[in-house]
Design a protein that fits this description.
Residues 1-144 form the Sema domain. This is Sema domain-containing protein. InterPro entries: Plexin_repeat, Semap_dom, Semap_dom_sf, Semaphorin, WD40/YVTN_repeat-like_dom_sf. It comes from Aquarana catesbeiana (American bullfrog). It is found in: Membrane. There is one protein chain. The chain is mainly beta and 181 residues long. Among the domains are: 2-40, no CATH class; 62-148, no CATH class. Helix content is 8%, strand content 42%. Strands 3-4-5-6 form a four-stranded antiparallel β-sheet, with no helix packed on it. It has a three-stranded antiparallel β-sheet with strand order 7-8-9, with no helix packed on it. A two-stranded antiparallel sheet has the order 1-2. β7 (119-125) and β8 (130-135) form a beta hairpin. It is globular and about 70 Å long.
């Protein structure tokens, strides 16, 4: 397989095919890759043209993504649900760090299946407040707001920074924005 690198094609072993001047000289494998990966050539960049989340030295690969925009009393938050090849889903909130900079904060990681199986797809149902996760093992659903996991105190609830949750005076519970007046 090949992948683009600095305007050149690069083979999996690191061999460059930059000296090929025309696609007429590409083999069928190269052309098949280009046809099946069109988004690699017309990238969609984040607003600030920088990665929203940058991780290094992790023992997993992200396999799927779903994005939710969560209304809050102080604005809106972007929440990423990231499926992994280990069968987990990470909930990551993107926070503004400066005028043109953001920071990803991992709120929780959930083991979705009893037997670890790479996550293939993630879908959000805003109406049902559920996350649907599929793998070769099957499909399961988890709540977007798992507020009780953050503890029984106001401080723990607030420190979780989870935009789906708020302290209701008694417990960490699902946050429901009040209608605009």
């Amino acid at each position: 397989m090949i992948a683009p690198s600095s305007g050149h094609f690069l083979c999996a072993g690191g061999f460059s095919v930059a000296n090929i001047r025309s696609s007429r000289h590409f083999g069928e494998d190269v052309l098949r890759f280009v046809r099946t990966h069109p988004l690699m050539y017309t990238s969609v960049y984040p607003v600030n043209r920088k990665p929203l989340l940058l991780l290094s030295d992790v023992a997993y690969t992200f396999t799927s993504i779903a994005v939710d925009i969560v209304p809050a009393s102080d604005g809106e938050y972007t929440v990423l649900f990231l499926g992994t090849d280990r069968g987990t889903v990470q909930k990551v909130m993107i926070l503004p760090k400066g005028p043109e900079e953001t920071e990803g904060v991992t709120l929780e990681e959930v083991e979705v299946f009893r037997v670890p199986s790479p996550v293939k797809n993630i879908r959000i149902s805003s109406k049902r407040h559920q996350l649907y996760v599929s793998s070769d093992a099957g499909v399961t659903q988890i709540s977007l707001h798992r507020c009780p996991v953050y503890g029984d105190s106001c401080a723990d609830c607030c420190l979780s920074r989870d935009p789906y949750c708020a302290w209701d005076g008694k417990a960490c519970a699902r946050y429901t924005p009040s209608p605009m007046r």
